[in-house]
Specification:
Keywords: Repeat, WD repeat. By secondary structure, the protein is mainly β. The protein is built from two helices and 17 strands. It folds into two domains: 178 residues, Methylamine Dehydrogenase, Chain H (7 Propeller), CATH 2.130.10; 34 residues.
Length: 213
């Protein structure tokens, strides 16, 4: 694991002294309230809680069987979500399990909380996105449109009703999972207008695709 200085674009340190961690590292996540605490995961279903100020392991958690590809703290830091063959929610303070969220039929590739931490978006190798209500631990929606693995998802508007997803199939899809169609069309047109504005080599016919331009 490397830590980088963004001012110099050079590594600050290389940390490879993880005696209890075997195999590759697939996900890293800083605690949103304690910037010195880093959680990372990889093969063998392990989550390691690391204090970067002391370079010491705080806790090694056997979370599940198999690889863990995704980690995400809730914005307030009271929940850590992990994704491997299924989704698990943890209490980072006690390192105890809260619950399991089942539904995907392939490994979880990414996890994202919305801004208030009440909704968790998960994506998977099965090509689906699922939205979970965290307070009641229930599935809110399941979105299917990609035909290959989804690598990333993001909540992208203030109301958190629009999600963008990126897939191995080469596409990015905008999902209006909890909003209105007019909002999605208007926002998409604004993004397209920004793209056209900054790509002056495009033909006039192409620029006319969006009245925003």
């Amino acid at each position: 694991m490397r830590f980088w200085n963004l001012s110099t674009n050079k590594p600050v340190s290389l940390t490879d002294n993880f005696p209890n961690h075997l195999g590759g590292i697939y996900a890293i996540e800083f605690h949103p309230k304690q910037s010195n605490i880093l959680a990372f995961s990889g093969s063998q279903g392990m989550i390691n809680f690391w204090d970067i100020s002391t370079q010491q392991s705080l806790k090694l958690l056997k979370a599940q069987v198999g690889n863990i590809y995704a980690l995400k703290y809730s914005p307030d830091g009271i929940i850590l979500a992990s994704g491997g063959d299924t989704i698990r929610l943890w209490n980072p303070l006690t390192r105890k399990p809260i619950t399991r969220l089942n539904g995907h039929i392939s490994d979880i590739t990414t996890l994202k909380f919305n801004t208030n931490g009440e909704i968790l978006a998960s994506a998977s190798g099965d090509g689906t996105i699922k939205l979970w209500n965290i307070p009641n631990k229930q599935l809110l929606a399941s979105l299917k449109g990609h035909y290959e693995q989804i690598n990333d998802v993001e909540f992208i508007n203030k109301e958190q009703s629009v999600i963008a997803s990126a897939s191995n199939d080469g596409s990015i899809i905008l999902w209006n999972w909890n909003g209105n169609l007019d909002e999605l069309i208007n926002r998409s047109c604004q993004w397209l207008g920004n793209y056209l504005e900054h790509n002056q080599d495009l033909s006039n016919d192409t620029k006319m695709l969006c009245p925003h331009y």
